[in-house]
Amino acid sequence: xxxxxxxxxxxxxxxxxxxxxxxxxxxxxxxxxxxxxxxxxxxxxxxxxxxxxxxxxxxxxxxxxxxxxxxxxxxxxxxxxxxxxxxxxxxxxxxxxxxxxxxxxxxxxxxxxxxxxxxxxxxxxxxxxxxxxxxxxxxxxxxxxxxxxxxxxxxxxxxxxxxxxxxxxxxxxxxxxxxxxxxxxxxxxxxxxxxxxxxxxxxxxxxxxxxxxxxxxxxxxxxxxxxxxxxxxxxxxxxxxxxxxxxxxxxxxxxxxxxxxxxxxxxxxxxxxxxxxxxxxxxxxxxxxxxxxxxxxxxxxxxxxxxxxxxxxxxxxxxxxxxxxx
Length: 326
Ligand SMILES: [Zn+2]
Known about the structure:
single chain; alpha/beta; TIM Barrel; globular
């Protein structure tokens, strides 16, 4: 690949951004919410996880999806050998992340996140980029953070500034789980004052904001991730309305859609735990966007080109990195 060519870093290495294809930009494979540092490794058998999850990834491929961004951060069960194994078995491009999740009252932050400076945290995340994650040669394809509602407390502002440093060195896009629109606007302000372009910022869970907030962030250049799509009561209508409001505002090119589906490790046992699909209004993982949202968008007058932009072009632009040496 040429120097300066737009690429996406997958768990199997870099690919040209235009080879990514239709993508779901915010999903999970396995998460473990036992709490930061309580489980040093997976509490399940990887081959059993593969047996359970692989058919759902193969079904996604049959729906024409070729890429999945896995948004589980470290300390919530990020398991990169499992992601590579599933990527190789399914043929799906899978992208993992670096960074820390401060949402839910810091329950998933390791002790050192409280003590270290933004430079020290950035150095840890950069090392995952330069040397690989946890003894593997698998590298992150984006930065994942988590914050609660705004205005951001100093600890979360520090996570943002650490992510800004990593972005400026690597080009990796910053995806921030966000409690509300006030937090999103605060994040954008912190990143811009650190020299980061809004185009490198994804407002994760933008469904927690208002139309006016989403349109403002999109106009400033940020990405609007409507990523909890589900079939719960009133939900398809709510997402459809939010997406069409962005379209009417001329911001279709800033929208990302996904389900936030996945599996969670059950119980507190330290070994041999079972996996359970999240559910969350989606009886089948990774399916509702295809079953309901796309038909609804077609009915609302969206063209095949617009749907292609939503699922293929927008994700490639949001996550493309341009760096000299990979
Ligand atoms: Zn998520």
